[in-house]
């Protein structure tokens, strides 16, 4: 059988069809699954083949809409909704305890959720809200679910953790370790803070793969530039204009950054979760459904940065992550 050919325009449905056998029988948890987002589209295409799809969200009404829509579109799907607020360590621990009480092992954990890119805001734990939701919360969730992930491993299957990052990680100079621990409203810029969390996603995938010594394979990815509600917020428009993601009128511009549809945007997540050719590439970064490690910025691939971030994050959550 020849290797599948994926491209910029490949959709999540197309990838799921190629890897239907790999998806079959798997239990998958996806964070951030509101309708009209790439997390929802990921859940929709996987639900046709998987044994169980756990969808999460911090808003019970939106989560119910997502559950009902998925069950309507895929009547055979086994969908299990779960309230999860990644901005609160206590809420993450509560959700993890619920998941750990489920009888099934967990094959794939997909970190898709992201905080609103907006003004400086502290969480209940006194972390900056974007880094809490995009990095610290997911790190803690992975740690707490690691036993359930490891339980799905066999001689023929290695569980996976997927981090939806962004190519925009190249637009910053890396993780700011000092403000991670001591948030600073003075130097805060919303889009810059977002890009730094995307660096953290890449570094965490690299370090998780290294530390697990083959027991868990982690991957990060760029989904593409996709129109979301976040991009239409007033405080975001000016920043996106500077990067020429939006034109002077605030409309999508493909002069420097071509745009993807939501089905195209979810494609790389599905590939990262189920492409068996990635088995020998733990920690890889994907773009357009294929490995693209050569496009990672140096500050996001540096092993010393990855280890430093891991150790600091353990301190912030008050728990050691061991295997």
TrEMBL record:
GO terms for molecular function: oxidoreductase activity. Transmembrane segments: none annotated. It comes from the Eukaryota. Signal peptide: none annotated. SUPFAM superfamilies: NAD(P)-binding Rossmann-fold domains. The keyword Transcription regulation does not apply. Keywords: Oxidoreductase. Belongs to the short-chain dehydrogenases/reductases (SDR) family. This is Short-chain dehydrogenase/reductase family protein. It comes from Mycena venus.
